[in-house]
Write a structure and sequence with these properties.
Layout: H1 5-15, E1 21-24, H2 29-39, H3 45-56, E2 65-70, H4 72-75, H5 85-91, E3 95-99, E4 104-106, E5 114-116, H6 122-131, E6 136-143, H7 152-172, E7 175-182, H8 190-210, E8 219-220, H9 237-251, E9 258-261, H10 268-282, E10 289-294, H11 296-306, H12 313-330
Parallel strand pairs: 1-2, 1-10, 2-3, 3-6, 6-7, 7-8, 9-10
Antiparallel strand pairs: 4-5
Length: about 350
């Protein structure tokens, strides 16, 4: 048992407190620059810093957001007035999280499949991040559905890496967010998505068990069981909720405190609707809290409005807060599309 067991347990519970979710703002510099390019923002460190300051200084963000996952660059940055972002988060009651993987790389011998790297030197990085104030971490595995894939080798390699990462986190005082993402890209049906997600979660929890992970000191960040974007037969909101919750109940131990979904390229409204129905229909029957850990589904509208113009920071923050509020409502089964009309006119 980790010497941090009690702290880890308390942090994990706080991360999935009622009405709150986790903000994923841990895009690598490369990914962040791609998003900036699309909206015409200069791809400089200073612009990334300004953007992250916009997010973290949004008034009342902690009403809906329990913690935020940062990237290595971000955890070392400060506001334009010199206040470290970690201090801003502590002052606002937002738990500091950190992405610790080094990205998905091609899996040798398996064309079209990826394995996430970053275990080398991870123990030392965790110790440094803990000293900097981080209390949870994230590692994302990527599973692609295609012709004859995913292979068992891909699922097992990623599950094993996730488990070893989780063990190092719990040893070093960080709650691991375990993120096996089954991609939404492709023309696969919801049934195929369910099948792959079921196999992935089964393998992941088997590996976590083998590495002696304390399930009450971790958070699962899965994808939803949903038809691929190019599938001619798109799933209804209810079908997605039913398939996703069934898959979770088959695989996720009751002692896991919470399941915080990724949005995986869904639209803002879809991500909120799916989360809402899961909670409205199943929250009473599920042992773990069902909430969100979204990136684009919270930030995108703010980024598109800001576009690097500091005179638009306040309006962009209102858009960000609105999305956080909508997803908070969805995490309690209280969301409706009518609430979108409350969106701040900017």
């Amino acid at each position: 048992m980790s010497k941090y067991a009690e702290e880890l347990r308390n942090t994990a519970k706080a991360m999935v407190a009622e009405g709150k979710g986790i903000l994923a703002m841990d895009e690598s510099n490369r990914t962040c620059n791609k998003r900036f390019d699309k909206v015409g923002v200069p791809t400089t460190e200073e612009m990334r810093r300004s953007y992250r300051e916009l997010i973290l200084t949004t008034p009342n963000l902690s009403n809906y957001i329990s913690g935020a996952i940062l990237y290595d660059e971000t955890i070392r940055q400060a506001t334009k007035d010199g206040v470290p972002f970690t201090q801003v988060m502590k002052d606002n009651g937002i738990i500091i999280g950190i992405k610790v993987d080094t990205g998905a790389k091609d899996l040798a011998g398996h064309p079209g499949e990826k394995v996430t790297e970053g275990l080398d030197g991870l123990r030392d990085r965790i110790a440094e991040y803990y000293e900097m104030g981080a209390r949870f971490a994230k590692w994302r595995a990527v599973i692609t559905i295609g012709e004859n894939i995913p292979s068992n080798a891909c699922i097992e390699a990623n599950a094993h890496a996730l488990a070893r990462y989780a063990a190092l986190c719990q040893e070093g005082g960080l709650v691991p967010i375990v993120e096996p993402e089954v991609l939404i890209d492709g023309d696969h049906t919801i049934e195929r998505s369910y099948e792959v997600t079921n196999q992935t979660l089964h393998t992941v929890f088997d590996q976590l068990y083998r590495q002696d992970i304390a399930f009450d000191q971790m958070i699962l960040k899965p994808s939803m069981s949903i038809a691929g974007k190019q599938c001619p037969q798109q799933s209804s909101v209810e079908e997605v909720a039913d398939a996703t919750v069934e898959c979770l109940r088959n695989n996720v131990p009751a002692s896991v405190p919470g399941v915080a979904f990724l949005s995986g390229g869904q639209t803002n409204e879809q991500a909120a609707q799916h989360l809402n129905i899961m909670n409205a229909k199943y929250a009473q029957e599920c042992p773990w809290r069902i909430t969100f850990s979204y990136a684009r589904a919270i930030q995108q509208s703010a980024l598109e409005h800001w576009r690097g113009d500091n005179s638009k920071v306040e309006e962009a923050q209102k858009l960000l807060l609105h999305r956080a509020k909508m997803n908070s409502a969805a995490s309690q089964g209280k969301y409706s599309l009518d609430m979108e009309k409350e969106a701040v006119a900017v």
